[in-house]
Amino acid sequence: MSPLFRRRPAPQERLVTLIRKPGCHLCDDAQAVIEKVCGELGVPWERKDITEDRALHDQYWEQIPVVLVDGRQHTFWRVDEGRLRKELTD
């Protein structure tokens, strides 16, 4: 199939990853948005803690919270509900 006609995955086939650390109020805010959007769309999501993963710490410690969609960085610091929803449905 031509890349121009590649089917976009359904929301349920996507994966949102929240990279966070304990005691981070921006992380709590980001998680609330992710829980809402992913819950409404049926998108699976996971949470990873930079204090438990040295590679994630080294890569993202200045940007947390970081949101990945399908393994690619979507945003950091603040999560915009509309932008995340658009990424998962368009």
TrEMBL record:
Source organism, top-level taxon: Bacteria
Signal peptide region: none
Pfam families found in the cross-reference section: Glrx-like (PF05768)
InterPro entries assigned to the protein according to its UniProt record, in alphabetical order: Glutaredoxin-like (IPR008554), Glutaredoxin-like_YDR286C (IPR052565), Thioredoxin-like_sf (IPR036249)
Parts of the chain that traverse the membrane: none
PANTHER family the UniProt entry points to: GLUTAREDOXIN-LIKE PROTEIN C5ORF63 HOMOLOG
Protein name: NrdH-redoxin
